[in-house]
Amino acid sequence: VSAEAANETIAIIGGTGDLGYGLALRWALAGVRVIVGSRELEKAQGGAARVIEQSRAAGRPLDADLVRGLANPEAAAQASVIVLAVPFPAQAAILKSIRGSLRNSFVVDATVPLAATVGGKPTRLLGVWQGSAAEQTRELVAAEIPVLSALHHVSAASLHNISNALDCDILVCGNHPVEKARLFALIRRIEGLRPVDAGPLEMARIAEGLTALLISLNRRYKVDHSGIRITGIEPSGETKS
Ligand SMILES: NC(=O)c1ccc[n+]([C@@H]2O[C@H](COP(=O)([O-])OP(=O)(O)OC[C@H]3O[C@@H](n4cnc5c(N)ncnc54)[C@H](OP(=O)(O)O)[C@@H]3O)[C@@H](O)[C@H]2O)c1
């Protein structure tokens, strides 16, 4: 367990949603401090209570102070890492609501601009002027706040089912090596996930698009948890310097 990861607090904005809840659950089970964020305090507290109850029911009770629920701006203010897990059409408004709370922290954007969010096909992407949802986030938060893009390919369904062994690479895009290393440490805390350095933030254009491909594969193979593995690289996911 890396010392860095032990000192992080992760706020999950949209932590009551499918992906956000799954990440909160898995990180809490791995001993990482998590704040479930929501637009509504009560909903956030309900999400945190659900994480605690699901962990207890699985015979893996959590330390009392490991998971809390807070309204998104308070959640962001108290965290060192902010994971954005909201539907694409909500992204701008949510970022506006937490922009003033981002201090000494960085943002990890998991948003995928799926056409389904505006009534289109789930296997298609919306065009985003900036190139990707993550690059839109880059524009919407202060320049001094690092923005990374990651966590698009691990399915919520596989995260929710605690007894399910995860098996997925997590492509991490961004231009901030220090924050990338911090996120790598956090991803490694969840067994079965391997972080892979996918290059600069603009590579999010491709990473986000792969989610639409996975949704198509899920339909074709009648599963809800397809993921990705990159072959031919260092098993640790580290790059060679
Ligand atoms: N589901 C997956 O397997 C998966 C995998 C990879 C990436 N993603 C991406 O992660 C993001 C979240 O996906 P999801 O499936 O977790 O979505 P979801 O189940 O719909 O949950 C998203 C959460 O966002 C919050 N939210 C804030 N503003 C909203 C608005 N205007 N309308 C609806 N919800 C709003 C809601 O929380 P409050 O109501 O509590 O504020 C909601 O619980 C999406 O961009 C998606 O493409 C999802």
Properties at a glance:
binds NADP nicotinamide-adenine-dinucleotide phosphate, alpha/beta
Low-confidence sequence ranges: none
Q: Give the strand line-up of the largest sheet.
A: 3-2-1-4-5-6-7-8
- Sheet having the most strands: 8 strands, mixed
Q: Approximately how much beta-strand content do the residues carry?
A: 15-25%
Number of H- or I-type helical stretches: 9
- How does the helix and strand content classify structurally? alpha/beta
Query: What form results from the Cα inertia axes?
Result: globular
The topology string of helices and strands comes to HEHEHEHEHEHEHEHEH
**In total, how many beta strands?**
8
Q: Can you give the mean pLDDT?
A: 96
Between the first and last Cα atoms, what is the distance in angstroms? 23 Å
Question: What's the helical proportion of residues?
Answer: 25-40%
Based on CA atoms alone, the radius of gyration comes out at 16 Å
Named once each, the bound ligands are:
NADP nicotinamide-adenine-dinucleotide phosphate
Please give the oligomerization state of what you see.
single chain
Short description:
The chain is of the alpha/beta class.
